[in-house]
Write a structure and sequence with these properties.
Shape of chain B: elongated
Shape of chain A: globular
Structural class of chain B: alpha+beta
Distance between the termini of chain A: 29 Å
Number of helices of chain A: 9
Helix content of chain B: 25-40%
Radius of gyration of chain A: 22 Å
Largest interface: A-B, 55 and 33 residues
Strand order of the largest sheet of chain A: 6-5-4-1-7
Helix content of chain A: 55-70%
Number of strands of chain A: 7
Largest sheet of chain B: 7 strands, mixed
Oligomer: heterodimer
Amino acid sequence: VRHVTFTLLAFFLTSNPGRSEASDAASALYNEGNALYRQGAYEAAIDRYQDVVGSGIRNPDVYYNLGNAYFKAGALGQALLNYERARRLAPSDPDISGNVAFANTLKVDRFDIDAPNAVTRFLSAIYTRLSPNGLAAWVSFSFLGICFGLAGLLFLPSRRVRWFVVLGVASLGCVLSIALLTVKVDELNTPKGIVLVPETVGRSGPSSDYLQVFTLHEGTLVVLERQEGQWGLIRLPNGIGGWIQLETFGMI
Amino acid sequence: LVARVLTAWAMVCLALILVANEADAVSVQLSADRTQVRTGDSFTVTVAISIDDGSSQPEPELYLPDGFELVGSRSSSSTSISIVNGAVTQEKTVNVVSTIRGNTEGTFTIGPAAVKASGKTLRSNAIGIQVVKGLAQPRTSSAPQSQESVTADQLEEIQENLFIATTSDRKSVYVGEQILLTYDLYSQYRRIQNPRFGAIPSYTGFWAEKVFDANRLEQRSEVVNGRPYNKSRLKQVALFPTLPGTRKLEQLEFICDLPIRSRRRSLFDMDEFFSWDPFRSHQVTVRAADIEIDVRPLPSGSPTSFSGGVGTFTVRADVSSEKAAQGDPVTVTVTVEGRGNLHGVGEPPRPDPERFKFYDPNVTVEATIQNTVLTGSKTFEYVAIPETSGRVDLPSFELTYFDPRQAKYVTLQTDPIPLEVAPAARVEEVAMTATPGGSVVKVLGEDIRFIKADASSLSDHANYLHASGLFWSFNALPVLCLIAAWQWRRRQAMLDGDLAYARRHRSRGEARKRLAEAKQLMATDGASFYSEVYRAMSSFLADRLNLDASELTTNQARQALASASVPSDLTNKVVGVFEACDFARFASGAQTDTDREDILSQTEDLIGELERAL
């Protein structure tokens, strides 16, 4: 309920007049896309969904369905790109995570990264499910708790211990949620991309004259670190960096 | 420290040697037990040194020409006392007896022997030795048990009566083909004492497997060249050549003690007579005959799957379980059984590993000699991991060996083994139990999850609270509330505790209330209006200055305002208001509505000004 409240709050805070008509038009396009998808007309469905995205509405369901349509149309890179976009907006959606995992089994590139242990997996699952808005709400909530505790101390000093406990818990929650929010926002602002072409070559510099460092295949997630002309320095999950052409991948 | 001790020790040793060498030698004599020997036979050379008694043991140096080897030496000494013309001479004789073996034919000079004494070197005489060609193989030699050695004639006699016959079941073999080598001892002696093996051949260039080693001599009669012999099997060995070419085997040595009848030379030879012993024992070394083996290389054009086996073999493959799971290892055992060089059978080439991943095998050999042929099995135990699921055939292994009897390569194949490979456990985790006791729902195929449902409206989700200033400003609300509450509470506390503060705090409100009442009285009751204005003013001043309002006269007000350092024009205005009110109260009716409105607004302004000033 609180989450919904804060989502609504966020909606009101940033809403502007004229949004509702646009939303109606967008939902009509979205539903049309869904109908085409059900008929198996994936290319046409992609067009509809892309129109919704073009209208400026960033909705996880739209990206998810668009990813599905791309997947069915055989474009693995585009599918993963849109799944990742959807996941960014709805990190706790199991459908999105499921399809990302499934699509990832079909991509070519593998990275030998040590499997995380149970504790790390548990913590990262919790972290993944936390949305930035939820964390912001937690920051506010715990801050309110601090104020509440202070007020209690001021106005009902006979129950000191109780108020100190409230204050301690709220402060801890506040610090933790601020830290997590900072990391989350940082991650949100990290420019990431998905390779869209079947194969591309990573080079040691921003030109095709440089030495080949690695070969990447469709669907691989890369982190963009720098841009120079038509080339971008990307970093792979295993830490290897290289320059690939900007047109070969799409930003999430 | 250790080095220093060692140095000191070495010097002591050196000094001792020097002292020892300073024996005062009188004479040195060299003699040999015979002057003609056969090659390979040993003879003794004695260096007799006569020295003064009391000197230490001399160490003679004996010159040996090439072709002679020193087998061993021992020394003995004796002391003799002689009295010549009343003079007593005590002399010590040291005999150094060296056993020497001549290996090359020819005439040689042995010696002289040199002894260092009193700083000078004494040399002995030299002796000539003729070495003639020794007996043909097999050879027999004897080492003397006593000082007396066996003569060549005796050796020849021994050789006829005691020899080792070496037989091999074939003279020409392929590389890897088994040769059975048998050593038999033929003897006409009844008593062979203390039999034992001397040097055992190392069989260079062969892989040797022991077939039989005699622990004791079991004699059977056999006639060789018309003469009866006792035949004893000494040793049997299976050899597998590893390299082609003609190979000469090293000799096997057999040592025993033989009783040898000593010849009585003469009845009058007292020494001989007294030492007469019809069965003197001599140590005799018998060497097996040389044998050459012709090893042929394997024919060219061997198949690629040839792994080195020579003999006759069979091959089969087994698997630990015919049901397996994808990614779980199964044990595949390839067994090569048969007769031949099992140790030389290499790993059969692994089948094309498209559906299985094979790890390096664990190899065990179990081989025994059955009917003088090496027979057994070699097992290659692989760990194989199926990489696909479903019904998978374990491919066949191919073994190629060389059959020396047919002189050709033979290729065998194992039967393919069908395996039922269950899908990997990873996939099974997806399966869920449908009903208790029912069957588990199998995942038939994997696909992406279906699209999200239609929506009547689409909300924009990319509105991040953390990016919104308004959101964060809302967080200031509780803080502001808290501050406000705290302020209110502080004021409340002050009002409760400080009368002056309370009066001061309430002054404006009170005055305003009175002025409002005055305004209502303005039109109806002039006197009451002025008295109300007066009270508003006076009580405001009294509240502000914490004075008693009833005692506040115009003069007191002037003094109090002056002491509160209120500007004099303001004080004058206050006094003006008081005076106007007093005047109007007692002379009512003279004032117009305008006057009343003036005084009211004037008072209101004045209260405002005074609030700031006080």
